[in-house]
Amino acid sequence: MAKQFDVVVIGAGPGGYIAAIRAAQLGMTVACIDAWSTADGKPAPGGTCTNVGCIPSKALLQSSEHFEQANHHFADHGIELKGVSLKLDTLIGRKTTVVKQNNDGILYLFKKNKVTFFHGTGSFVAHVDGGWSIKVAGKTDEDLVAKHVIIATGSAPRALPGLPFDETQVLSNDGALRLPAVPKTLGVIGAGVIGLELGSVWRRLGSEVTILEAMPDFLAVADQQVAKEAHKAFAKQGLVIHTGVKIGEIKSGAKSLTVPYTDASGADQKLVVDKLIVSIGRVPHVDGLGVETVGLKLDERGFVAVDDDCKTNLPNVWAVGDVVRGPMLAHKAEEEGVAVAERIAGQHGHVNFGTIPSVIYTSPEIAWVGQNEQQLKKEGRDYKAGSFPFMANGRARALGDTTGFVKVLADAKTDEVLGVHIVGPQASELISEAVTIMEFRGAAEDIARICHAHPTLSEAMKEAALAVDNRTLNF
């Protein structure tokens, strides 16, 4: 006999597990289905983010940053080290431990909030009395019936045509997180978040890294002043980045890959590398969901079609996260998951796409929220800009990390903050103040009048806001 639930969530990534927990908090009976497994077959909820994305990449970034500091910067602090060596298996092992802690944490949260977890693949069977019939295919098959279904199946890496991932030579984010040895030469196709972060990891650990990007401008999605500063910093570190390239037919040999490409000037070039990371975007994951079985509508790009409230074309079926429109960000998925759970409960869920921050966890870190200068100029918006360099910030000097700046963009008449862009130390943490101010439609003057502790990096935010009115105090 089928097990009955008010809500069944398919997928336990950031959107799915958060939706399940919030729905349970609101008094509903909830089940969450997820097929991800550890190497030994145990449940590994958390989706791409926890298993092969946000969490493991940050663990490797932290470890590789320590290695970089020990090799090149500890001497600046009077700490002299000799014979620094790398135990890659220990470094990767630490990453695996961090991932498992997050997996176990989600299972604990399910238990705490009385969410029933099913380890397997969830798919639609039919529309039945009482809701939707859902099949769980796993070690033990289960039949569920749900009044509401939340699809949170996430995304998968996009492969180059004719070049499938083998995770040995041609790597997705998954394979790039578990290389058994540091490659002498590493190619990266795509200078987006994944390409820059993973390229940074292996460059710090000793690889010669070359990044090839098809777009003519580096980090075209970011404010171009920020992008230029970041590009300059990456080049200084040794990351080789070519933009405006057109990739030819890649040939795989026994020990290397040959990547022919045309550079921005139109000249033919050739890159030979030991390993190749392909990070050209991600595609929605709907395989095995039973889309055709129940007539679930997809859009022209293969995403589950939803309205502004994340409702699909099917009654009481919702979808959130990477599998729907919008930025593929874990925190966007979480916000949608909470909003959908609250809408099911008759409340008014809230997601403001205009205040979703973006972060790249390189060194320097890059973070932004709202509109950038090129967008404001394109729409003809009358705005003011203020910026403040970390080189003039006391805490940044003490940290020994003065690269970059904070930039605040505000409406020329109302002073409302329209966007904030940061390149520099701890940008990922600093951006939250900007998100809060913008969510409340605050002004640059509001940031400027708030007392910030001294000495802190956050003072750069205050000074950038002061700069909007041409009255910085420390620069």
UniProtKB/TrEMBL annotation:
Keyword Glycoprotein assigned: no
FAD/NAD(P)-binding domain mapped to chain residues: 5-337
Record's subcellular location: Cytoplasm
One Pfam assignment: Pyr_redox_2
Domain Pyridine nucleotide-disulphide oxidoreductase dimerisation: 356-465
Keywords of the record: Cytoplasm, FAD, Flavoprotein, NAD, Nucleotide-binding, Oxidoreductase, Redox-active center
Cofactor(s) recorded in Swiss-Prot or TrEMBL: FAD
Co-factor binding comment: Binds 1 FAD per subunit.
GO biological process, one term: 2-oxoglutarate metabolic process
Cited InterPro entries: Class-I_Pyr_Nuc-Dis_Oxidored, FAD/NAD-bd_sf, FAD/NAD-binding_dom, FAD/NAD-linked_Rdtase_dimer_sf, Lipoamide_DH, Pyr_nuc-diS_OxRdtase, Pyr_nucl-diS_OxRdtase_dimer
UniProt-annotated binding residues for FAD: K58, G122, T153, G154, S155, D322, M328, L329, A330, H331
Residues annotated as catalytic: H454 (proton acceptor)
Binding residue positions for NAD(+): G190, A191, G192, V193, I194, G195, L196, E197, E213, G281
Catalytic activity: N(6)-[(R)-dihydrolipoyl]-L-lysyl-[protein] + NAD(+) = N(6)-[(R)-lipoyl]-L-lysyl-[protein] + NADH + H(+)
UniProt enzyme class: oxidoreductase
Disulfide bonds: C49-C54
GO molecular function: dihydrolipoyl dehydrogenase (NADH) activity; flavin adenine dinucleotide binding
Similarity-based family: Belongs to the class-I pyridine nucleotide-disulfide oxidoreductase family.
Misc. remarks from the entry: The active site is a redox-active disulfide bond.
NCBIfam families: lipoamide_DH (TIGR01350)
Protein name: Dihydrolipoyl dehydrogenase
Originating species: Pollutimonas thiosulfatoxidans
Highest classification ranks of the organism: Bacteria, Pseudomonadati, Pseudomonadota, Betaproteobacteria, Burkholderiales
